[in-house]
Amino acid sequence: MTPPRPAPRTPRQAGASRQDPSPRLWALAWPIILSNITVPLLGLVDTAVMGHLPDSRYLAGVTLGATLFSFLYWGFGFLRMGTTGLTSQAVGRESDGEVRNLLGQSLLLAGVIGTLLILFSGPMIALGLWLLDGSEAATALAAEYAAIRILSAPAVLANYAILGWFLGQQNSRVTLAILVLTNSVNIVLDLLFVVGLGMTSDGVAWATVIADYTALAFGLWLVSRQLRLLDGRFLRSRLLALAAYGELFAVNANLFVRTLGLLFAMAFFTSRGAAQGDTVLAANAVLLQFIMLTSYALDGFAHAAEAITGRAVGRRRWDEFGQAVKSAAWFSLATAGAASLAFALGGQWLIALLTGLPEVRATAGAYLPWMVAMPLIAAWSYLLDGVFIGATAIREMRNSIFIALAAYLPAWWLTQTLLPEALTNHGLWFAFTLFAAVRSGVLAAYYLRYRRTRWCECDPAGPARWRAG
Predict the structure, then answer these.
(1) Do 274 and 211 belong together in one domain?
(2) Do 444 and 298 lie in a common domain?
(3) What is the pLDDT of residues 324-369, one digit of tens each?
(4) Running DSSP on this structure, what letter comes out for residue 170?
(5) Which residues 6+ apart lie within 8 Å of 84 measured at CB?
(6) What is the pTM of this model?
């Protein structure tokens, strides 16, 4: 006699035997961490190639131009984040057609924005370089560099959409493959154009443009392979009707505003440090590299959390959602603790590695304790950004930035007013650390509240009611 089949498990029962998400989260995170490491490598090569030219103005020009594009393209990072969150939820709902059409919408949006950036590049580049306030010779070279580099805007933004789309499907190895290819082509062409052909800053710019379009071609080839595995088809009504972009616009608009707030916080910190003199500016720049180093690892776990939590939201599997956040939190805490310990024990050595100037070393060493505290404070904002992107609760992310700014700016003003001049930069670091702490705290408060009211079995309406943030 055939034994009776067991009754189907409810979602809650199924979750009780759900496997630990830690291995999957690590499998998603490590390619992202490795791909992040390739970014400073390219900067080192650019610096080395330009630094060996006979005139320092070439290095200064490329530095100014690269800084301008770092801020510009970071501002459009919402194309990656928004695509990841919405795609991961569509995967959770097992809607291949929606996954396919989200890619089409994101690529079209990237193409339109990239084309507009090229059309309006003249005044935009002039304004950006005026704000950066470099020397006349360096600014002229930076303008030449930027006029070439802007030609890759559609490719860069389309690559953001492609990376976000694959990450939303829990495929982070594509991120590693595309970024390794981009930076490898860029490095080879840097050497060919500058060392081999005798070009200067224009050679570095053309190398980047060609590398970006090479990456786009490779990314589109990977996309074509993935599309063959998906059901459904591209719908004209989804791609060409403006009304169909409502959710994508809502998510991306809040992400854009949130990113502007972050850019302002960083720019304000840099400008207030510069006002204290070149030595303080250089010391702060060295210490900010510590924060960047930490972010490479923490971003890996945050991006992995985006994909896993987004899929759980799409499936309305709140048990999986909670397990994924808990697992990512342990990884993030361990990474932040390791970073703080490394900075406490080896911070002076790292400073010496980054600068040979005795006065900059001494100044940076005086503010090293802030670097020991920062990873443990900021880790939660990195992690919860990933969780909120996966859940596409973007309005809350936006709010956290502006609440943190409301604490940051008065705190800076009070420290500059109350502290003696010798402690002015400590006051700036205190305000910047407070910004990170408030941002983490606000996101944590939202998370704890929503775990009781939205991200739980108690919300019968599901994510459709609040998915756009």
Answers:
(1) no
(2) yes
(3) 999 999 999 999 999 999 999 999 998 888 777 788 889 989 999 9
(4) T
(5) 164, 165, 167, 168, 303, 306, 307, 310, 389, 390
(6) 0.84
